[in-house]
């Protein structure tokens, strides 16, 4: 499967949640170590984010990685080398993003990792880590989130953008301290 085909498949992939898998943290660590080995001194920090980073939470089985860089121009400079290192991306999609860049890794016909490049210490950097940390610390919030995600996965099974937007509203409310 070539890059274009993998991106098209990813865009149209159905939303499906899986029970928490205890191997997810190790899969993150393996990829983090691979990235640090391939690109020494390029990342200021690499964090495991998303639902696979929250013990017990069901998730799409895709490891979300937040990689901190010193500038968006550094992120842009890394896109081609990361693509040579088994990632794929859409330059058109990345051109539409403000303050971040996105790549994915895939194997055996499915996505395995999302790599989010952001300026280390930026507001969005902190927002993503704050939400992960809230879910890890608050079992009730994590359970509410999982219940909502299951409903959205059914409602938006073939519309990943709508699924992501629904999660965004929940995340904003949770970070504001809402119900």
TrEMBL record:
Highest taxon listed in the record's lineage: Bacteria
Listed Gene3D superfamilies: Beta Polymerase, domain 2
Span of the signal peptide: none
InterPro entries named among the record's database cross-references: GrpB/CoaE, NT_sf
Identification of the protein by name: GrpB family protein
Origin species: Vreelandella glaciei
């Amino acid at each position: 499967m070539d890059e274009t085909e993998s991106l098209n498949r990813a865009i149209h992939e159905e939303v499906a949640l899986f029970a928490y898998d205890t191997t997810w943290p190790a899969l993150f660590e393996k990829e983090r170590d691979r990235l640090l080995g391939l690109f020494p001194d390029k990342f200021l920090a690499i964090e495991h984010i998303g639902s696979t980073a929250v013990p017990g939470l069901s998730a799409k089985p895709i490891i979300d990685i937040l990689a901190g860089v010193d500038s968006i121009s550094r992120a842009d400079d890394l896109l081609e080398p990361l693509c040579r290192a088994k990632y794929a991306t859409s330059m058109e999609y990345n051109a539409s993003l403000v303050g971040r860049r996105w790549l994915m890794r895939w194997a055996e016909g499915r996505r395995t990792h999302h790599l989010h490049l952001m300026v280390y210490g930026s507001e969005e950097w902190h927002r993503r880590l704050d939400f992960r940390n809230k879910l890890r610390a608050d079992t009730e919030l994590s359970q509410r989130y999982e219940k909502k995600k299951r409903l959205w996965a059914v409602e938006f099974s073939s519309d990943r953008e709508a699924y992501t937007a629904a999660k965004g509203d929940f995340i904003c409310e949770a970070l504001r301290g809402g119900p």
